[in-house]
Amino acid sequence: xxxxxxPTRAGRSRRGQVLLAYALLFPAALVVFGVVLWPAGRxxxxxxxxxxxxxxxxxxxxxxxHYGDILTxxxxxxxxxxxxxxxxxxxxxxxxxxxxxxxxxxxxxxWRWLFRGIVILPWALPTIVNGAMWRWILNAQYGxxxxxxxxxxxxxxxxxxLGSDPFLALNMVVVADxxxxxxxxxxxxxxxxxxxxxxxxEAARIDGAGPIRTFLRITLPLLRPTxxxxxxxxxxxxxxxxxxxxxxxxxxxxSGTQTITFLTYLQAFSAQRFGYGAALAYxxxxxxxLLALIYLRLLRQQEMKAI
Amino acid sequence: xxxxxxxxxxxxxxxAAGLGATALGALPLTAGCDVGGKADSGGEGTGEGKITALxxxxxxxxxxxxxxxxxxxxxxxxxxxxxxxFVAYEALxxxxxxxxxxxxxxxxxxxxxxxxEFGSKKIVTDVTSQFPAAWKTDMLGGALKTAEYQGKxxxxxxxxxxxxxxxxxxxxxxxxxxxxxxxxxxGVLAAAQKIKDAKLVKHPLIWSWKQAEALICDxxxxxxxxxxxxxxxxxxxxxxxxxxxxxxxxxxxKTIDDGLTNPNSLxxxxxxxxxxxxEGSAAMALNWTYMFNAANDPAQSKVAGKVEVMPTPTGTxxxxxxNGSMALCVSSGSKNQKAAWTYISYLTSSEVQNKYAKSSLxxxxxxxxxxxxxxxxxxxxxxxxxxxxxxxxxxxVPRYNEISQILQAEIQQALLGKxxxxxxxxxxxxxxxxxxx
Lengths: 307, 437
What we know:
The structure holds two protein chains of two kinds. Chain A is an all-alpha fold. Chain A has one domain: Orthogonal Bundle (MetI-like fold). In chain A, 74% of the residues lie in helices and 0% in strands. Chain A has helices spanning 9-46, 65-71, 74-106, 112-124, 127-137, 144-151, 166-194, 198-206, 211-239, 243-248, 260-270, 274-306. In chain A, helix 3 packs parallel to helix 7, helix 5 (127-137) crosses helix 7 (166-194) and helix 11 (260-270) runs antiparallel to helix 12. By secondary structure, chain B is an alpha/beta fold. Chain B is built from 18 helices and 13 strands. Chain B has a five-stranded mixed sheet with strand order 2-1-3-12-6. Chain B has a four-stranded mixed sheet with strand order 8-9-7-10. In chain B, helix 17 runs antiparallel to helix 18. Chain B is globular, with a radius of gyration of 24 Å. The N and C termini of chain B lie far apart (60 Å). In chain B, 51% of the residues are buried. Classes of the chains: A mainly alpha, B alpha/beta. Chains A and B meet through helix 1, helix 11 and helix 12 of A and helix 1, helix 3, helix 11 and helix 17 of B.
């Protein structure tokens, strides 16, 4: 102490602040470690063992055996195809519809607050409720969609939407997902639209650009960062789709709506192959992590642009 | 380097480091160490206090029945309190598995297809030593097998059920079909054709052929009717892909192609079958016992009073009903196993079962001669007496669930016309083979 010069007042309070910051961060770190990192680490370990019961016990070490099994299993690749199709179809539809909806919501009109409120409603519904609702709408025997289409004479007779054709059923799950999540995309894009200064579009109009050219040359380029961010966010969410499939189709017909996460659930809990299930989950994690990195990169680009 | 990049970078780095450290920490030093986490082990308990029980909310006893039984139980045993939980059948298995390590439920209801799995994995307790010898003679054979695996009892039979043929007497009368002709599947098809020709209903037959266990129940009953077998007698190889198993699937497909089976069957569970039949949109259907009461109830059925029941029709190989029984078990994680056993003994007693015979028929032989039980539903009891004598079981193997899932998907492939029945069953057999060893 004697050789070291006494800390200045400013230095001491600074160190105090740092300590306080760590103390305040500690509970959050504990939670993150406890509910995210610890289970994630355990799952990684379990994926290397042939764990076939929910209890503690001795299980044989299989290394990367489960990963090898998965990648050579045709059931996995079929589920992967369904997942990719679902992700592509639902995000494309959501972004296109969301873009249109965002423009409508941005338009100056009376009762705008009311419309904005109504549009957010589907997103506020829990996915399970949304799935159950669409299952009833699409019911082959007494569903509202069948009633509507036959009463409009667009269809002669009631038909099955979720049981007759695996690809049709998958598309119906996409419809239910789009109905719910378009509003989220629309609100992201609405926020993006509002950052575009009105003078720019005004100037374009004065220079003789029509609405389409204004959209393509002014709105779209300026909206691109928001668009990219929401796209990646939705792709991540769609890639992890599980609950809406569980409620609407249970993976059927003929496994036509089985996604990777649904297969993971079946293997882990119905078949009690926890090691195999954990390995499947880790493959999803890797895919989502890559998408998340793209998302973070896009966010950073946006921040840099803002500066 | 811009300033705001730092927190993000370091956050990622710290997360990766944390994950790595956790994985290392969780990694056992020698291969084959404890990797399942620490489980609470169960115990006898004092025989008093609170217990929790997991039931299903489907077929068999209704939630109202079970709550009423429980109220009577707590009146008789005031020192035990019971908290029942109800889930859909489709969620029952996975909930039992997920809750097992924590010992959340003291009493669980299990299906006849799970004792091999739950017994060998010790999710439920072996109650052989508590099982009174008299029960083994007093319970019906089909019921007794429900919770038995390799000579041990893992629970007490509670719901004794099989699938019966229900028919709409009004439609049969209008198409001048004699109900006695429905005793064979050929007769059922002929009757369905007549009813369709008379334009009484577009699709006379409705089934629970959704990609779920319900599909396998219907398939098993038909497989039995055509004299087929699920597995070879030593349970070492698959047998459903030839003979009766194949004929059953071909028959199912043909009823769809001929327009006799409602195509919506492929998205229907038992409850959907009940609704379609109760709406008057089907003339005949296979279903569990509970449909007799429900379809004859004017509050939930448009065809009340016009519904009759008979034992499952005969095919070329007999007329076994699928064993769809369920049993109550003490979970191995329960800390109050004594009280759980008291509760199970009460619910499964013949007095309680006789009282609720309207919802589910008793497991006890002598109940079927009890006038009070018979008078509840004389036709139902008569049909049950005949059918319960010969039941066909789904394979009693630990990995049954996986085999069932494979079979469900492949049978649907055939029913949707995406694969020929031979090919679908051969593919299922190929995948299921490795699960039997």
